[in-house]
Amino acid sequence: MSAPMSVDVSYYVALSAVVFFIGLGGVILRRNPLIMLMSIELMLNAANIALIAFARAWTNNAGQIFAFLVITVAAAEAAIGLAIVIVVFRRSKNVDVDEVAGLRG
Fold first, then answer.
1. Residues 6+ apart with CB under 8 A from 40
2. What is the tens place of the pLDDT at every residue in 31-85?
């Protein structure tokens, strides 16, 4: 029986960086609020990957606890953000982030 293979932490950190920058590109380049919300979720998931990887590398459960808290914040952010997008879409049929600022009363 062979020993289980272990993946180096640097691979997880590289994956986390790639996912984070994909999310950052989505937030910066796209003006659709739904795409922006999904990109923010990607950025939060990238942070979770890094937290879990370092928690496993250092055999410390604190990173897993923080990742659970980040998941909770991400769920709340998605629910509130989607509710705001629905309210804005009901007011005007165009959902553009630049034009939402013009709706201030």
1. 23, 27, 77, 81
2. 888 899 999 999 999 999 999 999 999 999 999 999 999 999 999 999 998 898 8
Count CA atoms closer than 13 A to 35's CA, side-chain side.
13
Whether 32 contacts 16, CB under 8 Å: no
Taken in order of first residue, the domains within the chain and their CATH numbers are: 9-103 (1.10.287.3510)
- DSSP-assigned letters across all residues of 28-81: HH---HHHHHHHHHHHHHHHHHHHHHHHHHTT-THHHHHHHHHHHHHHHHHHHH
